[in-house]
């Protein structure tokens, strides 16, 4: 072409085109969806720009998308997708279609290249394949485009971008046809021999209905041709004489009718081709329709095309309302099927809310804090009746309706999740159960975050959280309370971050509860302990850490008299051992007591009410950057431990005997026997620490002790030295490293991190869901602010009882409170 410039695709584009063409052959229908989606974006961009720059509208009257297929005289078949959107300048054609500007594209490509074709589902969903998918069906693609008129570009010129499927280059040149578009973009695909089905209007209609009926609010027209038999118009016969009277006319008419039928000659017809633009998406937008008339499939398709998600949503709510400020709105809220990996990696996530005003898309950028972090994954389409159309984001944020929108959405989201949970709990529909199970799998941790960060709603969010126990895979707090034993006045839990429920269930702290049939929440997820500590009480029952002192089964007062006597006897019998332990553990624990929680283990270390459990110690060590005052507090809290011994353990019984055998102080002491006992005691205490999840303070000491005990049991001399002579390293080598000496052996390469689903270059989190927000337990101020405003009334809203305000105490406050309590003591 005249004035054509040849360009080479940026290498990433070439790679993407290759992946698309090679791996998506069996999914090639997607090309139409992608082009319609681009056309919609271009018209939306035009409409938004026109609010501040009306000049861009010149060039074409309407805003629409047209599809047309035709056969050229040379036999080639073409499909043309055209829009009256914002268009592109020649520079934009080069930049937009010749390069990939998206961040993370290279990584995506590397992964996609490794994926076989079975992974194409993910491929389609993971990335807007966009314009390049046109090469799935076309050997050659021409994009003619003319940029919208602006003061800076008052005389735009129509240009063409042309490329073949197997070319690594493309051309951009002025359109030899001149300005044929008026405004917008026209994509002409020269269809491949095996893609001629896309000229079939039935097929195209089907595709649009299936994938794109909700992709745009602008009309999509399809050019159709059909043949029709039409009568050939005969010359109008001469007029009959007008009858004199009505009566006569009636009589005449009857006769004439009959005569006409008899006399009628077969009409002459001819075949004509009727050309017509058929409106394919003529239904009103889904959110404007009566929910009763919308099918589940329509809701799902609408979600998939609006939010570009290949997966179906897990649930939705379609609702309308009238905000207190007088703004009527209609909205659909969707629960997606996954949580983006980025959710736990950032403090705040932008919400996905598509705001419309009177059916017209305004923005999906309502700012980072449009929703509280915990709920930022919800997808919403909201159409307000009377908001100004041409407002900036700042102005939008200042409108009362949008400030209320946050609490409207959060409230409705909680309601939707609650309904899903309730339906699943009825256990009469497997689909309901599966849907809730999936929601819980994906969002359980986000809900815990919600119960912690959203002080206003925590009483409603907490029942949605599911936690594993020693008796079932998971339970809600309400189910736990229902399952409590007679007299039980505490909700038992054991927390140890990073441990599985199976491992936790075997903990010494759960031994007795398990044996007696009490249910214990097993908390191994990072947010678990913060979640329960923040709630403090559920349905009047306080949470009781079973690794702490203060554990009460609730039926102690029913202990038979003889059992109490037995306890007293035990205390007396074991006094020498308790005293011995107290002497031996000086400084390490606050007290030594006879345990009522151990069944088989000989002993355990339990945190005092004001002390730290092993889990808290671990978390605080990880976080510890505190002031000196804090460190003093930590040291103090760390020491608040109690050693519990199990009188029924043969080991403890044996130890008691040995201690009792020691000569009394005024007799001659048996130093050797004392030392041996001392060693056994310290191994027991170390064992108790480990068994209880704490760290042994000095592990080399611990192993030295183990060593001595092992030697003793094997009859090896305890003092015999180990031969520790080693060969020293050769002298320093001054020559530079030779190549062959350091040949790279790639058979020992570590595992490819990408194969493990890890992103290279980013910090690797210990557990996939380890949040960065562990201790940021604070109220979301905006939610509080929104609460101060009158919350708009939403239709179908169940009127809930006002939830009593629960005192919010953050971790630090709690610490201070504990210190205070202790000082008073
Ligand atoms: N019909 C069109 N009108 C105007 N610009 C277009 C049109 N089609 C594509 N473009 C421009 O080309 C760019 C690249 O399009 P492409 O379809 O490859 O990716 P995308 O649309 O940005 O991403 P995605 O498909 O993931 O949404 C678009 O961002 C847009 O700027």
From TrEMBL:
> What InterPro entries has UniProt attached to this entry?
HATPase_C_sf, Heat_shock_protein_90_CS, HSP90_C, Hsp90_fam, Hsp90_N, Ribosomal_Su5_D2-typ_SF
Keyword terms: ATP-binding, Chaperone, Nucleotide-binding, Signal
User: Under what name is this protein listed?
Assistant: Histidine kinase/HSP90-like ATPase domain-containing protein
Tell me which species this is from: Phlebiopsis gigantea (strain 11061_1 CR5-6)
Q: Where is this region: Disordered?
A: 231-270, 715-740, 789-825
Q: From start to end residue, where is composition biased (Acidic residues)?
A: 245-263, 790-816
Q: Which domain of life is it from?
A: Eukaryota
Family per similarity comment: Belongs to the heat shock protein 90 family.
* Annotated GO MF terms: ATP binding; ATP hydrolysis activity; ATP-dependent protein folding chaperone; unfolded protein binding
């Amino acid at each position: 072409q005249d004035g054509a410039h040849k360009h080479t695709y940026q290498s990433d584009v070439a790679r993407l085109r290759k992946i698309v063409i090679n791996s998506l052959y069996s999914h090639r229908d997607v090309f139409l969806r992608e082009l319609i989606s681009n056309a919609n974006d271009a018209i939306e961009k035009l409409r938004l720009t026109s609010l501040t720059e009306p000049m861009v509208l010149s060039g074409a009257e309407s805003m629409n998308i047209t599809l047309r297929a035709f056969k050229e005289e040379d036999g080639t078949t073409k499909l043309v997708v055209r829009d009256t959107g914002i268009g592109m300048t020649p520079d934009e054609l080069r930049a937009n279609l010749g390069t990939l500007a998206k961040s993370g594209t290279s990584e995506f490509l590397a992964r996609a290249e490794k994926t076989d074709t079975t992974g194409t589902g993910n491929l389609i969903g993971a990335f807007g394949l966009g314009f390049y998918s046109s090469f799935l069906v076309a050997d050659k693609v021409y994009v003619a485009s003319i940029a919208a008129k602006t003061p800076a570009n008052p005389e735009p010129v129509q240009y063409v971008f042309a490329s073949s499927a197997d070319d690594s280059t493309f051309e951009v040149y002025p359109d030899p046809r001149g300005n044929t578009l008026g405004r917008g973009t026209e994509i002409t695909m020269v269809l491949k021999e095996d893609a001629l089905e896309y000229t079939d209007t039935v097929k195209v209609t089907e595709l649009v209905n299936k994938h794109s009926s909700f992709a745009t609010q602008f009309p999509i027209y399809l050019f159709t041709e059909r043949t029709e038999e039409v009568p050939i118009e005969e010359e109008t016969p001469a007029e009959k004489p007008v009858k004199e009277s009505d009566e006569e006319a009636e009589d005449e008419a009857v006769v004439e009718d009959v005569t006409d039928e008899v006399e009628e000659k077969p009409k002459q017809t001819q075949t004509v081709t009727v050309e017509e633009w058929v409106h394919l998406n003529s239904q009103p937008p889904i959110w404007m329709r009566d929910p009763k008339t919308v099918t589940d499939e329509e809701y799902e398709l609408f979600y998939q095309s609006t939010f570009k998600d290949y997966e179906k949503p897990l649930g939705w709510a379609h609702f309308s309302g009238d905000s207190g400020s007088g703004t009527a709105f209609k909205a659909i809220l969707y629960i997606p099927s996954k949580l983006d990996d980025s959710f736990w990696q950032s403090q705040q996530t932008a919400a996905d809310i598509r705001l419309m005003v009177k059916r017209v898309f305004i923005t999906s950028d309502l700012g980072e804090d449009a929703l509280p972090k915990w709920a930022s994954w919800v997808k919403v389409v909201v159409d307000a009746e009377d908001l100004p159309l041409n407002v900036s984001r700042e102005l939008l944020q200042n409108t009362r309706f949008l400030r209320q929108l946050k609490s409207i959405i959060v409230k409705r989201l909680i309601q939707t999740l609650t309904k899903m949970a309730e339906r699943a709990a009825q256990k009469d529909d497997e689909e309901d159960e599966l849907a809730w199970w999936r929601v819980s799998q994906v969002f359980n941790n986000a809900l815990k975050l919600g119960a912690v960060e959203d002080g206003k709603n925590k009483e409603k969010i907490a029942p949605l959280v599911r936690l594993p126990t020693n008796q079932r895979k998971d339970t809600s707090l309400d189910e736990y309370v229902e399952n409590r034993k007679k007299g039980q006045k505490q909700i038992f839990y054991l927390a140890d971050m990073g441990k599985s429920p199976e491992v936790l269930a075997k903990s010494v702290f759960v031994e007795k509860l398990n044996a007696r049939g009490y249910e214990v929440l097993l908390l191994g997820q990072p947010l678990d302990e913060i979640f329960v500590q923040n709630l403090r009480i559920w349905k009047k029952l306080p949470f009781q850490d079973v690794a702490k002192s203060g554990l009460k089964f609730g039926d102690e007062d029913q202990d038979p008299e003889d059992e109490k006597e037995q306890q007293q006897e035990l205390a007396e019998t074991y006094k020498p051992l308790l005293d011995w332990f107290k002497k031996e553990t000086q400084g390490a624990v606050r007290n030594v007591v006879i345990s009522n929680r151990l069944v088989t283990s000989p002993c355990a270390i339990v945190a005092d009410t004001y002390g730290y459990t092993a889990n808290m110690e671990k978390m605080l060590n990880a976080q510890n950057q505190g002031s000196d005052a804090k460190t003093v507090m930590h040291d103090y809290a760390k020491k608040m431990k109690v050693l519990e011994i199990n009188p029924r353990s043969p080991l403890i019984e044996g130890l008691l005997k040995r201690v009792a055998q020691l000569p009394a102080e005024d007799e001659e002491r048996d130093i050797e026997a004392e030392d041996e006992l001392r060693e056994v005691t310290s191994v027991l205490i170390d064992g108790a620490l480990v068994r209880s999840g704490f760290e042994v303070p000095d592990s080399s000491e611990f192993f030295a002790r183990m060593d001595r005990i092992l030697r003793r049991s094997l009859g090896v001399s305890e003092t015999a030295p180990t031969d520790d002579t080693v060969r020293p390293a050769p002298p320093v080598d001054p020559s530079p490293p030779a190549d062959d000496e350091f040949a790279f052996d790639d058979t020992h390469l570590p595992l490819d991190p990408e194969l493990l689903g890890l992103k290279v270059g980013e910090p690797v989190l210990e557990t996939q869901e380890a949040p960065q927000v562990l201790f940021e337990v604070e109220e979301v101020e905006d939610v509080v602010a929104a609460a101060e405003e009158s919350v708009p009334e939403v239709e179908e809203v169940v009127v809930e009882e006002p939830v009593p305000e629960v005192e919010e105490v953050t971790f630090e406050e709690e610490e201070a409170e504990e210190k205070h309590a202790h000082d008073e003591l």
